[in-house]
Design goal:
single chain, alpha/beta, FAD/NAD(P)-binding domain, 2 domains, 7-stranded mixed sheet, 5-stranded parallel sheet, 22% helix, binds NADP nicotinamide-adenine-dinucleotide phosphate
């Protein structure tokens, strides 16, 4: 265990964690950001960032994250790659136990984000990367001139389906209801796209293939009818892109922090039920999960952590 007691440790290096890191570093707190895989969180798999205020046209997730990360570093935030596996959050000094070491801080900001929700049907896990994907930006190019299905009906599903039409020869959105949840403006563009089809009232119940996706069973939820859709013979495979929301990365906090449906509960100041422990970004219970709200949460959490640490 390092002897150092940081003023604040931030778990998670996505937009919430990086914004918290900038604000914490800038207020001269000793700051450590712990990230388990790679800095950036979900936004690094997004090609276009269109709605971040002040964003420039053509800005991508990775480039925005690079700038946020460099900014946090400039303000003195340290970064380390480790996976936190346990934590003791009560008391004046919080302890975080990682695979590589133990870390101590006066305050903690939980910014662990969320991950794409899987369909949960047989065959899905086995075929990830072999036809099944959760990231159009990452995998669209593998389906150049092929047939692709998109599961979901929200903003993400419809926007990513439109992106996929730039690569695939045909894209079909499979949605469990007969109307989309996506914003009207997004829907209008989608309905006008000649390469985009919709399969309503339908769910994928099984994905099949020996080492590569070859067919899937789709069930009509109104009639109960099930049918098997096969890959076109000339292609041998097809793509299934899943965009059905997100699951918070919060199993580590179970029994330690107040949560609802896996989301960490905070007040408007990002305070959890434990003094000195704050949460920011997609892992919080909130109504809008966007880069701008994640960054705002991070700024508030770091400012509140500063007041807390000053008072301890
Ligand atoms: P979402 O808005 O929660 O939509 C999830 C979609 O998946 C819904 O259509 C839902 O169907 C469907 N679904 C959920 N569970 C399912 C299951 N088990 N099987 C089949 N379908 C299922 O999620 P999202 O589209 O990922 O968006 C997440 C957030 O990011 C939203 O707040 C969204 O506005 C935001 N976002 C914004 C933009 C943008 O502003 N341009 C782009 C992407 C995302 P039902 O409709 O029947 O519930």
């Amino acid at each position: 265990m390092t002897e150092k007691i940081y003023d604040v440790i931030i778990i998670g290096g996505g937009p919430a964690g990086l914004a918290a890191g900038s604000y914490a570093g800038r207020s001269r707190m000793s700051t450590l950001i712990i990230e388990k895989e790679k800095i950036g969180g979900q936004i690094v798999i997004t090609a276009d960032i269109e709605n971040y205020p002040g964003g420039v046209e053509g800005d991508s997730g990775p480039s925005l994250i690079d700038r946020m990360s460099a900014q946090a570093e400039r303000f003195g935030a340290e970064k380390i790659y480790d996976t936190i596996v346990d934590m003791q959050l009560e008391g004046d000094v919080k302890k975080l136990i990682g695979n590589k070491g133990e870390y101590q801080a006066k305050s903690v900001i939980l910014a662990t984000g969320a991950f794409p929700r899987p369909i949960g049907c047989p065959g899905e896990k086995e075929l990830v990367g072999k036809g099944v994907s959760y990231c159009a930006t990452c995998d669209a190019a593998f389906f150049e001139d092929m047939v692709v299905y998109v599961v979901g009906g929200g903003d993400a599903a419809v926007e990513e389906a439109m992106y996929l039409t730039k690569f695939a020869r045909q894209v079909t959105v499979i949605h469990r209801r007969d109307e989309l949840r996506a914003a009207k403006s997004i829907q209008e563009k989608a309905f006008a796209n000649p390469k985009l089809d919709f399969m309503w009232d339908s769910v994928v119940t099984e994905l099949k293939g020996d080492g590569i996706l070859e067919s899937m069973i789709v069930k009509n939820v109104k009639t109960g009818e099930e049918r098997e859709i096969f890959a076109p013979e000339e292609d041998g495979t097809f793509g299934v892109f899943v965009f059905i929301g997100f699951v918070p990365n919060s199993t580590l906090f179970e029994g330690k922090i107040d949560m609802e449906n896996g989301y960490v509960l905070t007040d408007d100041d990002m305070k959890t039920n434990i003094p000195g422990v704050f949460a920011a970004g997609d892992v919080r219970k909130k109504s809008l999960r966007q880069v701008v709200t994640a960054a705002a949460d991070g700024a508030i959490a770091a400012t509140q952590a500063y007041h807390y640490v000053e008072g301890v």
